[in-house]
Write a structure and sequence with these properties.
heterodimer; A: alpha+beta; Penicillin-binding protein 2a (Domain 2); Beta-lactamase; 2 domains; 7-stranded mixed sheet; 5-stranded antiparallel sheet; 20 helices; elongated; B: alpha+beta; 2 helices; 3 strands; 12% strand; rod-shaped; disordered C terminus
């Protein structure tokens, strides 16, 4: 009986030990090693794929690519998975051209995720992949390129490291341009290939961002940019802006800024070079504002063409002496505009009630944004009539004491050029689908009539006279009728009043005067060589831009 | 009940054959769908790669064709320079409706900086007015 009992004992002991060992093993597998094994199983059976829908293109009016994105790769690490940190850092540093100690510092980070280098080329990414380093991964990303570099860069804007629009059209149309990103997890088959499923089909048919087509013509923009750069350099000016629009539709054909920047390396430029002065900067318009004061007077009936003054070269209003650039003698209304006479304009402004003037200024679009499809547009500064203290009311007549943006001035003059209608400006003409088909086309928007057709005809005649016989002679183009207005305004000083020897020279004109094809605004900030009058500085620039437009678009007189 | 064994056998064989062919057909279709799925994914991947390549080439073309690059090469490689005489073209419609072009020439040299922007202008079809 004894040997039998011993056998049973040993057998039960054996099973007990076996169960204990098995229990420990189960505990180890199920509890201790569970996360690792689960991950291993996941890696063996599933795969992670990321499909990136590229950001849409930006095309100019002729279909030239002004902005496009291509795929790049960003290298990242999962530090807890990296073994032999210094060896891995050394290998990667050779490929990525980074100092090894910088990589070591990142790999010693306790986080689960650290970027090693973002936006490397496909070739570099392939080389990193070839190293087969544990814990080092890569993810596809998009990088924006601007082939025309500085051309219209202040309008286009730029994108950040995560491909989000940060300024200009890139910011304004971010939701349209942005592509969709799809991250999916797929089941792998025995050979390691992904098993077809609805998920992958859906992901492969991911959507790219839509593209936008501008009204800006890159060829014209290039010429305008060169003209502006030449003028700013020659006159040693602080900055300059040129806007070319179709006065009937509000389509912006060129919008040039100088200084400007290259959006491919935007961070290397100071912030002031990256702003779009055409819409974000304000200045006191000076004489270019006079036509709107006259328009208000004529249209409201407070003055007529027989209105006349005698200019002695200065006028005193409420104890303040307002000087003119010369004594013009006896003048009628058209002479006042032609000679850009300050004394005459002060008297015109004083003839019109403040609220009437104010309402016409509002009607021309001053004191509020024009609604152009660009971010950061300023409303300008148009004080309420109750704030036109002392000499303020007289100064408004000569375009001082108020501030406007170049685009406001452009659209207000467009209203005179097109027969009296205020139109909304735009730079994006249409939105294209990822396959290039037009899905939305912009319709020009006429907001309302500002002045009557008869007032408009009178103003056009006066502005034509400014170029033919007045201060705008330098804008004259043989064979073509050009209408426009010069402007020279003083720059407000930080200490109050106006600064000495600091001026803003401007010219706003359109041609052919009877049926304008284009309206061009030129504003040069603080020129220091070759004079400072709008007729000396801005009018010749207008002429060069207009000549380029005539040649480019083959415009007949 | 009178069961005909022979008939039963025939039915059984027919049912077995039916099951065999139907499951065979089902399997064949399943494999076919899977195969086509793989082919579809491969083609989509090729399409994506080609689209990517196309995008890169388009971008390269745009960089090479940008005005500043063309101008730089025209100056460096072809030795082209600005026309120092500011000119402009007047376009007029002839009686036949054709667009004619004439050049107004300035005889004196313009001030420095005043001839910028006239670098790449095609004057192939322009002729000079006799009354210049």
């Amino acid at each position: 009986m004894r040997p039998y009992r011993d056998k049973v004992f040993f057998l039960s002991m054996f099973f007990m030990v076996a169960f204990i060992v098995l229990g420990f093993r189960i505990y180890k597998v199920m509890v201790v090693e569970s996360p690792r094994l689960r991950m291993k199983g996941f890696v063996e059976h599933f795969m992670y794929l990321s499909f990136l829908g590229e950001r849409g293109y930006i095309f100019d009016a002729a279909g030239r690519v002004l902005a496009a994105s291509t795929k790049v790769y960003s290298i990242f690490a999962c530090p807890p998975q990296v073994r032999n940190v210094s060896n891995v850092a050394l290998k990667i540093s050779r490929v990525l051209n980074l100092p090894p100690e910088k990589i070591v510092k990142r790999l010693k980070n306790r986080n689960q995720f650290v970027w090693i280098k973002r936006r490397v080329s496909e070739k570099t990414a392939e080389r990193v992949k070839g190293l087969k380093l544990k814990g080092i991964y890569m993810v596809p990303e998009s990088r924006r390129y601007y082939p025309y570099k500085t051309l219209a860069s202040n309008v286009l804007g730029f994108t950040g490291v995560d491909d989000q629009g940060l300024s200009g059209l890139e910011y304004e149309y971010d939701r349209v341009l942005r592509g969709t990103r799809r991250d999916i997890v797929l089941t792998k088959d025995a050979s390691g290939k992904e098993i077809p499923s609805d998920g992958i089909v859906d992901a492969l048919l991911h959507k790219e961002g839509k593209s936008i087509k501008l009204s800006i013509d890159a060829a014209m923009e290039y010429k305008v940019d060169k003209i502006l750069r030449g003028a700013v350099d020659y006159h040693r000016a602080k900055a300059g802006c040129i806007i070319v629009v179709n006065p009937y539709t509000g389509a912006v054909v060129a919008m040039s800024n100088f200084p400007t920047f290259d959006p491919n390396k935007f961070s290397k430029y100071p912030p002031e070079d990256r702003i779009n002065r055409c819409i974000s900067s304000v200045f006191e318009p000076g004489s270019t504002f006079k036509p709107f004061v006259v328009a208000a007077g004529l249209d409201s009936g407070y003055i007529n063409m027989s209105f006349g003054v005698y200019c002695r070269g200065s006028v005193v209003y409420r104890g303040t002496l307002i000087r003119d650039w010369k004594a013009h003698g006896r003048e009628k209304l058209d002479d006042i505009i032609k000679n850009s006479c300050n004394v005459g304009m002060v008297k015109v402004a004083l003839k019109i009630p403040s609220d009437v003037l104010y309402n016409y200024f509002l009607g021309f679009g001053f004191g509020r944004p024009t609604g152009i499809d660009l971010p950061g547009e300023t409303a300008g500064i148009l004080p309420l009539p109750s704030h036109w203290y002392g000499v303020g009311r007289a100064l408004v007549g000569i375009g001082q004491g108020i501030s406007v943006s170049v685009i406001q001035l452009t659209m207000a003059m467009s209203a005179i050029a097109n027969g009296g209608y205020l139109v909304k400006p735009y730079v994006v003409e249409g939105i294209l689908d990822s396959d290039g088909s037009l899905i939305r086309k912009r319709k020009p928007k006429v907001l309302y009539r500002v002045i009557s057709a008869s007032t408009d005809r009178l103003l056009k005649r006066m502005l034509l006279d400014v170029v033919n016989n007045g201060t705008g002679k330098n804008a004259r183009i043989k064979g073509y009728s050009v209408a426009g207005k010069t402007g020279t305004a003083q720059v407000p000083s930080k200490r109050g009043g106006y600064a000495r020897n600091r001026y803003v020279s401007s010219f706003v004109g359109f041609f052919p005067a009877s049926h304008p094809k284009f309206l061009v605004s030129v504003v040069i900030w603080e020129p220091h060589k070759g004079g400072y009058y709008g007729g000396e500085i801005a009018a010749p620039v207008f002429k060069r831009v207009a000549t380029a437009l005539i040649e480019h678009y083959k415009i007949s007189p | 009940m009178n069961i005909n064994i022979k008939e039963l056998k025939i039915y059984a064989i027919i049912i077995l054959l039916l099951v065999f062919f139907l499951s065979g057909g089902y399997l064949y279709l399943k494999v076919k769908v899977l195969k086509e799925g793989y082919a579809f994914i491969n083609l989509q991947k090729v399409k994506l790669r080609l689209e990517d390549e196309n995008r890169k080439l388009m971008l390269k073309l745009s960089f090479l064709g940008s005005f500043s690059t063309v101008e730089k090469r025209a100056r460096k490689e072809l030795g082209m320079v600005h026309n120092p005489y500011a000119t402009h073209v007047v376009y007029v419609h002839s009686s036949k409706g054709n667009l004619l072009a004439g050049v107004h020439k300035n005889k004196k040299l313009p001030a420095k900086g005043h001839n910028e922007g006239f670098s790449i202008i095609n004057r192939a079809n322009a002729f000079t007015f006799s009354n210049r």
